[in-house]
Design brief:
NAD(P)-bd_dom_sf; 2 domains; SDR_fam
């Protein structure tokens, strides 16, 4: 039986670890051809070797590199069906604490990169007959903290940007759907390192777990399965939508 994304060519940023790597693994298992990119070349190549997929080095904040990556995908595969904009950073700080430079850096990585990725990929995707763009936002775009001024606002901006691009693609009738994913607290290597670095890791883990009404942190597969759905034709009527997978965090 064919996989759910059999024959689709997928470009996924930030694929060296965490949710990006898990999503790439799930897409590969369902028959996709996956190209992961990452700014960390050693980690990116190691992940690609482990997963059995392609790797391209990429700084997602570099517009020229975006154009080159899309051109490389077209040269190698002749098409692009799915773009997953996963690469992001978290920048901590209240309005009083955060520097203008750090605030801008958060937006450059978390918002500008998605704008550039969509802008670069849409022409090739349209020539390929359409497809799906999946942008990573966060439940932090809904549930705010006084100490995440940049990250909260950047992730909220991703939702609005996704809606605007989705309406553009609908107006153009180019067959491209654009949605975003808003994960809650997921037990990724980054989260594990944050927990380990606190004075009482067990207490921190418990606090992170009970913050979700469902009573636990999410697992990477909770998000990877959603990415497969949005990449597949099963979601053919979904566009411009934020898909919240956060254990109820946003509504608590």
């Amino acid at each position: 039986m064919a996989g759910r994304v059999e024959g689709k060519v997928v470009l996924l940023t930030g694929g060296a670890m965490g949710l990006g790597k898990a999503s790439a693994k799930a897409l590969l298992a369902e028959g996709a051809t996956v190209i992961i990119t990452d700014i960390d070349e050693a980690a990116g190549r190691a992940a690609a070797t482990e997963l059995g997929c392609e790797y391209l080095p990429q700084d997602v904040t570099d517009w020229a590199r975006w154009q080159n990556v899309i051109a490389e995908v077209e040269t190698t595969h002749g098409r692009l069906d799915v773009l997953v904009n996963n690469a992001a950073i978290t920048v901590f700080g209240s309005i009083a604490d955060i520097s203008p430079e750090d605030f801008k850096r958060c937006y450059t990585v978390d918002v500008d990169s998605i704008f550039m990725g969509c802008k670069a990929a849409i022409p090739l995707m349209a020539r390929s007959g359409g497809g799906s763009i999946v942008n990573f936002s966060s439940a932090a775009g809904n549930k705010v903290s006084p100490d995440l001024a940049a990250y909260n606002s950047a992730k909220a901006a991703v939702v609005t940007l996704t809606k605007s691009i989705a309406l553009y693609c609908a107006r153009e009738q180019n067959g491209i759907r654009v949605n975003c994913v808003q994960p809650g607290t997921i037990l990724t290597p980054n989260v594990e390192s944050v927990i380990a670095g606190t004075p009482d890791p067990d207490a921190t883990r418990a606090a992170f777990s009970v913050a979700q009404p469902i009573g636990r942190m999410g697992e990477v597969d909770d998000i990877a399965h959603l990415v497969v759905y949005l990449a597949s034709d099963e979601s053919k009527f979904a566009t411009g939508a934020p898909f919240i997978v956060d254990g109820g965090l946003s509504i608590a």
